[in-house]
Structures are given as C-alpha cells and as structure tokens.
Amino acid sequence: MKKMKVGLLGASGKMGLSVRKSLKENFFTPFLAVSSKNCDEFVFTVADLKNVELEILDQVDVWLDFSSPEHLQELLQFTKKTPIVTGTTGFSEAQIKKIKIASKKRPLFWASNMSIGVWALRQALKTLGLVKDFNFVVEEIHHTQKKDNPGGTAKTLRNDLEKIVNKKVTLPLGKRVGNVFGIHKVTAASKSEMITFEHTALNREVFAEGALKAARWILNKKNGYYSMDSLQENK
To answer: Pick from 44, 11, 1, 13: which is nearest to 147 by CA?
Structure first.
C-alpha cells in the first residue's frame, strides 16, 4: 500500500508534537511540516505556506491541522483541493461559513474533539431526551495554555444537548488549571435526582490517533464537510 504523504499545520504545538509521534506508523510519510521550529522527521519544514512551491504543495495527500483559525484560513487559501483534517477550535461564525464553503471543493473533516470516547459520550447524551424537564449544565477543565474558553468540545456538547432537550442550555463552565488534557462533564438534575456523564482524556495521543484515523478515512471521499459522526457511522 502506498504511504500517505502528510502535511502538518501547527507541527510545533502540543497537539502537533503528539501527531508527529503517531505518524511513525508505516502508513504515513511525514512530508511537509509548517512550523517555527525544524521538524527533522519531515522531508520539508517551512515557517510559512507562502514560501512553499506549488509543486511541493501538490504532493501532499492530506493535511492535518492543529493550529489556529487564522492559520487554517491560510491553508484553505494556498491549497485548493487537498483533503484536510482539522481539530482547530475557536472559530467565529464567519470563519465556520468559509470552511463549509471550502468543503464544496475538497473533502474537509472537522471535529472539536477527535476522541472516539467523546463521540460515544455524545451518543449517550441522546438518552437525556427522556428527561427534558431537568436542568442541564456542561463543564470542562483544560490546561492553562488553551486559548478558547469555553472550548470547542464543550460548545459541541452544549449544541448537542440543546437539540436533544429542545431548549436553551447555559454557556459551558470552563476552568483552566495545570496540564489537564481535557475533562468534560454534562449534568442533568431535578429537585430529586441527578445524572452525570463525564469523559477524561488521559493523554494527547488519543486525539492524534483519532486525527490519523480520520486522515486514512477521508483520503478517497468526495468533496464535502465531514465530522466524527461521518467517520463512526460509516466505518
């Protein structure tokens, strides 16, 4: 089987480092890294996409992105058709609209959380439709370097919950402490009882493994906007 040439945006960040470790499996070739630091395991390392020759960009089979909303917009600008798997969060409504427009010309996979466990949690939340009259709250804990608060996963859980219970849920409660990889909790309570769903990430590798699974899956897909639902329901 031909190895997949991977481009990695945000290669020197915490998630970028985890992805680089996971890329060592045989299916992938670390081809092009966009990073402020040299990435020895990649064939090419560049500081800015503007400096990359089109011939090199065209060799990338799939892009993995764990950077920022602004850098993802640059990636969309300089690469026209290559599939993208992104776990970046913190998008504005206007940026999300641009991403969905871009997916009409390429396969584009976005997930606020690449963990299969979080996807399973989202499915479990559907049972809360049986207690729509309860009160609901979403909470999250992340490391102190995480910029968006509340984070993308907490927002996704809240959006899911609002659809399930057909009413507004208060903004997620976000805490930033230590070096926590990610704890997400959804609580449903009445005056007499309480239900709690919780997911804890034990390391960043779980997100990297999910991203690489999505990269393998999306390679031969048609143009369109894909998510963890697409990946899990069609595997």
So the answer is: 13
- Beta-strand ranges (E) seen in 78-214 are 84-86, 107-110, 135-142, 173-176, 183-189, 194-200
What domains can be seen in the chain, in order of their start residue? 4-113+205-233 (3.40.50.720), 116-200 (3.30.360.10)
CA distance 167 to 34: 42
Helix (H, G, I), strand (E, B) or coil at 178: coil
Give the catalytic positions in this structure. Answer: 142, 146
Contact of 113 with 152, CB cutoff 8 Å: yes
Residue range 201-222, pLDDT digits in tens: 999 999 999 999 999 999 889 9
Global pTM reads: 0.86
Per the CB < 8 A criterion, the answer to whether 194 and 188 are in contact is yes
Strand partners, 30: 6
DSSP state of 109: E
Which residues, in sequence order, are bridge partners of residue 189?
135, 194
